[in-house]
Structure formats: C-alpha cells, structure tokens
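Repro:
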Amino acid sequence: MVTHVPAEAHGDERGALLSFVEAQRGAIRRSVLGLTEEQAASRPSASELSLSGLLKHVAEMELNWLRMAQQKPGAPPRRSSGGERQRSEETWGDSFRLVDGETIDATLTFWASVSKETAEFVRSVPSLDDTFPLPPAPWFPKDGRVSMRWLLLHLVEEIARHAGHADVIRESLDGKGAFDLVALEQGGGPGA
C-alpha cells in the first residue's frame, strides 16, 4: 500500500509543508487505533516511551513551537480538569505520559485544536521567510532566529522521528505495522 502526500495545489509550498506535517501527525494518531488506555500506556520495549506518552509529547511540542512562532508566552501543560500548571524539572517526565486523568481521546482532541491553530497561523503569516526568535537555551545559538519554513520542517522532523518510535512500539504490542494501521483506519484489513 503506497501513501502519497500531495500539495494542496501546484507550487503551494505552505500547503505542501502543512500536508507533510499532517501526514506525520496521522502516523502518530494511527498508532493508538484500537488500543485500550492501558495498552497505549505500556512500554513493551527497552525504551521508556509509550504510545500515549508520544501522543501527548508531540501535541505539547507542537503547541510550544507554535507559541514561539506567534511570539506569545509559552503555553503551560494542561490538566484534564482544564487547569494549567508549569513544568518543572521534577515534572518533565509527565510530558511523556498521561497523568491526572488525561485520556487518549482528550489528548487527540487537544492536538486537533493545536493542529488547526498551527495551520491557520501558517496561512496567515505574510511569508514563510518571516522569522521569530529562539529562546535562550544551551542548544540554540545566541540571539538565534528561524523562519516559518524552518518551523514547518522542524515539525515534520520531530513528529516523524516520534512516528518511527510509535511504529516500533505498536509492532511490539500486537504486530501491526504502519500499513496495517492505514488499512485499519480506512476500514479494511491488511492489504485492503
């Protein structure tokens, strides 16, 4: 089964980049198809990563990058009750696991709203060459800036990396590979 990521229109760079981001999001979303909360939270490999934890991480990561690009204050992690809290060194690991009643469905809904906001923001900027400052951090250059194009490419990179992790974890859980999950999402079995 071949998957193809089309641009929205010929020469539409924004549409093409947003489509590639969405294709990688889809891989992460599909990784939890048909699983219970317990299965998705399990860690069947040597890694400490779980499927539900990856789902939460990529949703929060995308929101954090979006807020940087928008030059708005960073969004603190959300609580299932709607309250907000800041991450600390002690709670950093919570960005890779569902806690305090968080669920897969709620995390998927949260990520869908972030994805929609990302697309709306990217379509609203005058140019993909527009830049925004990187925050002070040892891994960023001093006074570094990146473009909106860089942002989209980084989202593809980050989400794709974790989609690969999700592939391995899902196959370790029940043997279903990426193409099996595409067919399951489309209502068929493998090879459908």
